[in-house]
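Q: Convert this sequence to structure tokens.
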Amino acid sequence: MPKGNSPKNTKSESSFGYHDWAVESVISVEDVNRQAQELSETVSLEKITGLVQGEPFLKIEGLCAGYGKMEILHDFNLQVGKGQSLCMIGPNGAGKSTVLHSIFGFTNIFSGNILTRIGDSETLITKMSSSQKLKEAGISYILQDNSVFPDMTVEENLIMGGYLKENTDAAEQSTERIFEKYDRLKARRNKPARVLSGGERRLLEISRALVMEPEILLVDEPSIGLEPRFIDMVFEILDDLQRNEGKTILMVEQNAKKGLEFADLGYVLVSGNLAMAGSGDELLENPDVGRLFLGG
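A:
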């Protein structure tokens, strides 16, 4: 796999996109949107359902959502099974992060439904608050970079992640379980978060989201701002959470190749619509996806 130590750009025809390897030509965001729109296909509910392993654990039905009065997502559908991972890619402004925001309660929802399984029943969570979604529905949101509290210790940052626990003891017990799992954090438990490396900060952000013991992780741009060696570490952590702890993971990832290599399922969004859907491997092998989003 090409890495960030690829030869530097020494010719005008070679440049770097939002991946970590060189590309031979550059097209504008407008051209990417236009060409991606031309590739858009009607993604049927049957196809979406067919990609799910078992029963859908999280489901979005005909969602129209956005910010203020502006609609960003248009009749959007999504399904993912328990313990599966899904990566959303697409041009800038396609609505990828808006999907995560809508699930967690950060957008205005004009129509449509969001459902997940709580216990043995499918439950409508569209209008739940973010706190309810975290505490009752087991959905945790991992923000993009720089969401740690730099002057608080690693331990204090983790305990903050359990602010909805019944009591401080419960948050502290969950924090201790995380220290048992991640020696990197345990060794720095009393250090201020500002001394951590970029990769360690991202580990802390992921771990803080685990204090509430969620079933579903919404992960926004996990590789952003990281060196390649830390990117690999973060994806190894996410893989462990999915494969060994059964977490369901929905991800937006600007490094499309890395995200699709990781994920069971891949969605391509264009202009607030679901343009393509398939397994991660299928999208990796699609030459048009490769040309527009993978640098090849």
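The longest strand covers residues 56-67.
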